[in-house]
Amino acid sequence: MILGSSPTLSQAPPKRADCRVGAVEYKGWHAQQLSNRWVQLIIVPQNGGRLMQVTFAGHPYLFVNPKFAGKYFPPSSNEWFNYGGDKLWLLPEGSNDEQHWLGNSDLLDDGPFSFRKLSEGQRCEIELTGPSDTQTGIQFIRTIRIDADSPHIGFHATMKNITGHMLEWSMQSVSQYDTSVSGTQETEHAAQLNRDFWTFTPANPSSSYLNRYHVRFGPAENPAASVRDDNLFTVHYAHMAAELWLDSTEGWLAVVDGQTQYAMVERFQYDVGRPYPGKASVIFWTNGPEIRLKSDGNPSLSADPDSSPYYLEAELNSPMCRLRPNESCSFDTEWFPTRSGSEFHGVTDAGIVIRPLRATAAESGKIKLSGAFGGFYSGRLLARFYDEHGHSIGTAPVNEVDPGKLVALDTEISPPQKAARLSIHLVDENGTDRGALQEVQVS
Questions:
Q1: d(CA 338, CA 377)
Q2: I need a surface site. Which of 142, 154, 309, 324 has the fewest CB within 10 A?
């Protein structure tokens, strides 16, 4: 933890390091790796262009199915090969008509993607191009990028109409997070359930859904899902099949592993002027046995072997795209890995709030700060002070910040004069202000 009562900030020049793109072997797959000093991304182009694993500060986030590790099966519209990782999906799903996608591991999901390195050095960017799928009329193209100086990951997904007629679809980013106890899911039968795994996203106060979320699959009364008093929808992972839809408009979701104290924030831009598939911008799926009614009216748990692995899907949907022939639409998302703690109170531009900031005036004229955060960037924290009329009265250094370490504040700082309010900003290694971690009144 980053602690201190009299903070001093290093004036050393920022570290300059490059990011790299290169071929690697991963669990028997021929893969490509994007890496910098913070993160390593493993991509398997052959298996549907999947981002198979993301590792930050030594912590792997994504579920990789040990049943299919190192394997590849040709596309099939009658089977589903759940390799794990992160991929693109198509909505709406269903078998009603040609305006719904049946799913399974058909050409769109499981066809080999071509791989191209676009840049390397201070920015590493790769391009994945999928096959043209005549059934849906869609071709996916996805670029993934990281910079040399932060753990931030950027995604740009494109969906192209390859037909000669109008189409309407939504793109979905599907990320399978490992919900087993760290390291126990390397083999099919050794996994142990992580009982301290959570997801969060802001509930929509003007939601179209009853209870501000929609139970698409699973029991309607599910104690694992709830809306907290602070308006955050949360799922406490339970090994039971459930699909939960939200029309969240704030543009983020967070996945928090309380056991290892690592978190991942996924960001997107909500478009208020366009419809979303089933009104949902965010979907969570908890994998596990399915509760179904038998023909005799008694409930039963499914014996489907795909229900065995411990994982949770966090899914972000694009608005519906109405595409003319050869027209494309795009969907941009961002990931921010960081550290977490025993609490969670929201996401800002600069990081996550683990324990809310408190600023208390001391008799000495100093201000005592307390709180805990997970930062998105490496750099330093800067306090900005305001008087009772809202005028800026100066700044003061607070502490250094490292995204791979919990930022725990327990310190005193000296304002230039009496302050009524302050904010804590994160300034990265390059001197860019990344925004406030939190802003509070001085009590």
A1: 9
A2: 324
- 365: which 2 tokens? 């004229």
Pair of tokens at residue 7:
């903070």
From the list 37, 21, 28, the residue with the least C-alpha distance to 128 is: 21
Contact 73, 81 (CB under 8 A): yes
Which amino acid appears at position 337 of this protein?
A: P
Q: What amino acid is encoded at 125 in this protein? A: E
Tell me the three state secondary structure of residue 142.
strand
| 3-class DSSP state of 295 | coil
**Rg, C-alpha atoms of the chain:** 23
Question: Residue 109 carries which DSSP code?
Answer: H
Structure tokens at 431: 């001197």
Q: What is the mean pLDDT of the chain?
A: 92
Q: For residues 374 and 383, what is the distance between their CA atoms, to the nearest angstrom?
A: 17
Tokens 């670029």: give the residue. Answer: 143
The CA-based angle 15-339-53, given to 5 degrees, is 85
- 253's tokens: 């979701």
Contact 380, 9 (CB under 8 A): yes
Closest CA to 68 of 51, 84, 79, 48: 84
- Residue-wise pLDDT for 34-89, tens only, equals 999 999 999 999 999 999 999 999 999 999 999 999 999 999 988 999 999 999 99
Cα separations in angstroms, 364 against 383, 414, 419, 422: 18, 9, 13, 18
Residue 43, CB half-sphere, CA atoms under 13 Å: how many?
26
